[in-house]
């Protein structure tokens, strides 16, 4: 895929840096933004505490109904370079909660930066998210997205403005991709991964970036101290689902990355995870540069980066975007509009709602 610009405009980034330095981001902060110093990663055992969606606390949340009878597609549709749309969502708040790993246990996680749904906390369920509001451009996207909080000298540094969350085809047969089931949730990466594991991770795209420095597993010691430079990361999620569970005890085994179909260069879903879903890619931008020696994540070093996704999309809205942009092989914005193919129209109206 063609490289996208790693630099925001000088005006936008300098404004973001100023807002951050003045603490004027307008985002609710947790009372303990450096909770990661106590809760270093998910160092405590993964909880098996019961929750409204997992009454027996075994960590399994069955899909209802399950998706059965799917065979991974090996078809080769006409080649198209793009098959994606964006969810543009702003930061809502920070909090040492994780409703996937520690449901119903407020304060047990390291600090997280939340985007999308404004109500996300340790008690969040599919129903509570469905009833919440969102900072995403599309009102139908009430999903919760979160990641460890970035800190500089113990002070949170939060992304400013809508962040880019891509929904792409991870398999060659982009026409086989279907929407996420409501309530699906998973963790991408691990706060306890080593630098080598982070670099070798299937979701690794270009690591930490700033200025002309790419593919960093940890934060660079220095980033150019210019108004147009900030710290960026891109990281991709698995996109093949087992069709059985909305969550599993390790919050990952119900999902898998595509594999290469033997004898070809094509990506297909593995047999035990045959359902092709959109591939989420976080593209986050943090307004920090210059001396990076005091920069870390609430979960630890830069290579402890990971993120969580809890699907609460309005189902018809998500289906419209997936069908129009991913299956339709377009490069769409958050409205489902591809400016290079105006004849295709948009999936959503000017207010980012279904027409």
Summarize the main sheet.
6 strands, antiparallel
Percentage of residues in DSSP E strands: 25-35%
Distance between the termini: 31 Å
Gross morphology is globular
Number of discrete helical segments: 4
Enumerate the strands of the largest sheet in spatial order, edge to edge or round the barrel. 2-8-20-13-10-11
Element string (H = helix, E = strand): HEEEEHEEEEEHEEEEEEEEEEEEEEH
Residue share in helix? 10-25%
Counted up, domains total 1
Radius of gyration: 19 Å
Mean pLDDT: 90
Low-pLDDT residue intervals, each spanning 5 or more residues: 1-25, 32-45
Structural class, by secondary structure, is alpha+beta
β-strand number:
23
Give a brief description.
Keywords: Signal. The protein has about 350 residues and is an alpha+beta fold.
Description:
Keywords: Signal. InterPro entries: DUF1996. This is DUF1996 domain-containing protein. With 355 residues, the protein is of the alpha+beta class. It has one domain. Helix content is 10%, strand content 25%. It contains 4 helices and 23 strands. The protein has a 6-stranded antiparallel β-sheet with strand order 2-8-20-13-10-11. The protein has a 5-stranded antiparallel β-sheet with strand order 3-4-5-23-9, with no helix packed on it.
């Amino acid at each position: 895929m063609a490289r996208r610009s790693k630099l925001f405009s000088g005006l936008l980034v300098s404004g973001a840096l100023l807002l951050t330095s003045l603490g004027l981001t307008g985002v609710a902060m947790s009372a303990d933004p450096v909770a990661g110093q106590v809760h270093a990663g998910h160092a405590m055992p993964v909880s098996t505490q019961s929750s409204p969606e997992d009454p027996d606390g075994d960590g399994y949340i069955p899909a209802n109904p399950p998706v059965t009878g799917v065979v991974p597609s090996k078809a080769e549709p006409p080649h198209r370079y793009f098959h994606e749309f964006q969810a543009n969502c702003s930061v809502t708040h920070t909090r040492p909660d994780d409703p996937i790993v520690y449901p119903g246990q407020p304060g047990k996680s390291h600090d997280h930066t939340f985007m999308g749904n404004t109500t996300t906390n340790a008690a969040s369920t599919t129903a509570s998210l469905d009833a919440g509001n969102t900072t995403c451009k599309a009102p139908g996207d009430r999903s919760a997205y979160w990641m460890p909080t970035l800190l500089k000298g113990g002070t949170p540094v939060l992304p400013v403005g809508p962040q880019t969350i891509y929904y792409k085809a991870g398999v060659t047969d982009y026409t086989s991709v279907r929407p996420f089931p409501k309530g699906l949730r998973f963790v991408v990466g691990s706060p306890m991964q080593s630098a080598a594991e982070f670099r070798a991770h299937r979701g690794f795209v270009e690591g930490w970036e700033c200025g002309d420095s790419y593919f960093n597993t940890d934060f660079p010691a220095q980033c150019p101290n210019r108004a147009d430079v900030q710290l960026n990361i891109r990281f991709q999620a698995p996109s093949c689902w087992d069709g059985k569970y909305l969550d599993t005890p390790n919050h990952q085994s119900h999902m898998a990355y595509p594999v290469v179909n033997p004898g070809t260069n094509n990506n297909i879903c593995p047999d035990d995870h045959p359902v092709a879903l959109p591939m989420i890619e976080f593209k986050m931008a943090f307004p920090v540069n210059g001396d990076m020696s005091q920069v870390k994540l609430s979960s630890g070093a830069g290579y402890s980066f990971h993120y969580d996704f809890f699907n609460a999309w309005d189902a018809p809205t998500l289906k419209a975007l997936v069908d129009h942009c991913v299956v339709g092989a377009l490069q769409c914005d958050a409205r489902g509009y591809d400016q290079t193919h105006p004849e295709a129209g948009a999936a959503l109206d000017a207010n980012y709602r279904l027409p």
